[in-house]
Amino acid sequence: MCKMSSLQPDPVNLLAHMADTFIRSGNHRLDILIPRVRGFLAKDIAEYTMLGKRVRGFRSPDSPSIWLRDHSDILRGGKYWERDLQGVLDHFAETQTARGWLFDNFATKPEKPPCERENWARYIRVPVEADVEFRFVKAVYLTWQATGDDRWLRVMLPHMEKALEYVLTDPWRWDSRTRLVKRAYTVDTWDFDYTAGRNPWLNFQIDENTIWGIMHGDNSGYYEAFTLMSFFYGHLGKAKPAAYWQRQAEGLRSRANKLCFNGRFYTHRVPLTPVSIPGVNEGEQLSLSNPMDINRGMATHSIAVSIIREYQRRGKASSAFAEWFSIDPPFPDGVFGEEKLVGGAYCNGGIMPLVGGELARAAFEHGFEEYGVHQLLRYEELTRNNKTYLWYFPDGRASSVEASTSPEATPTDGWGSSAMLYALIEGLAGVVDRSASFRSVTLAPRWAAALSREAEVSVSYGPSGASIKYRYSHEVAACRIQMEVEGKAEIFLHLLLPKGAEPIRVLVNNRRVRFKPTMVEESPYVDTNFHLSGKAAVTIEY
Fold first, then answer.
1. What topology is assigned to 440-541 in CATH?
2. Fewest beta carbons less than 10 Å away: which of 83, 142, 268, 418?
């Protein structure tokens, strides 16, 4: 057996190395993404004193408030460095209403001066939003992963139960005929709806004239939330509620896939209230939650492949610099009551890194690994000026306050940058925590797709310091891949091989182990599992 070659630190990555979450693959463009994104996220922290309690969380890129949706998604990157993760969720739970619904956001800072000047404690729920409660469940999961705190999880469980039961029973959220989550006619997950001209500006309210429909992204979010509830209860040894939430998840998934998937992708909106907007072909509108539907697990593999191919097709046909569409094709200019919402701006066809990150993560998982690498490299090029925005015009111009409906357009977008980090760490480096504190881990290194023959990866959580590390070496002439893995976990190895390769032997600490060759589309993998307690040497011969 060949010894692992020595990997020398790259000076440009010393910041990442000191942080104990780093990648050194020899490809500077990939390796620099972790310290770059960490820098963005460090500037995305907001702190407020809310009724005597100091609350710290990740803020939206276009508003100084702490929005639950942004905080939840940004946690996918922030959990590797931020130490105080529980406090903000404690506050959202503390302010949960008797009916179960949660606030969207809070702040004490005026958002739109000079017309707003009051620094009062302000809590907001946008009525048309149907996604807030599932994002709370996901945020609890990501925080629990990083802390490993079962006692805190037990405290959060009643709040999650109450939130989800609200969604399943409230007539503003649940459609009893389709048995799916419904919402007003918004642009995908955004917070204002189409009123057919009944409102003079953006509308956020629900009334007797609300135009209802089923939006796929809400339902994939609740599918994931129900699945997580089943996982939580199973982890805590409560079989009956675990089974209940698993049934809820499976039923929702089946109904949503049957109703919303149109044969190529998830239709933007399945109408409950019939309406026609001149110039809009709803059957052709590809909206931003499609890759999220894949990563949340609602899409089957065949649906995922179809969606990814649709993005590839549109990317080739479009003049946009990236196929990270908020929606494509966009709505006619101004139909939502705001003249700034022209085609190609903001959520009406703007190009969003958060979509690119989700698309990359989906691509890595479903056999389009080189396409996933391409998205990461495209993002690296976009952010070389150390700026990243929530959205860009299709020609590459960055968003601005003047072009948005929002009070800010900060150049440190945590929503998109954390999505890209999610794709890098879980997709390309392949470190997926299946439980908490890296006790059960899928290792799916896909360095063959990036043409990297050597890599060193370390991933660590900010609150607990729990970590896992590995070194990877591909000896092409010897048809051999070697790994040294360090940590304490049950390891499920799912390793990408070169094109056309077939595994012939797998050894863990010089002992042969059973393995299974698998194909994900045209990508060959080798699968095995083993218990890791300290260090292990893994050799794959093909």
1. Immunoglobulin-like (2.60.40)
2. 83
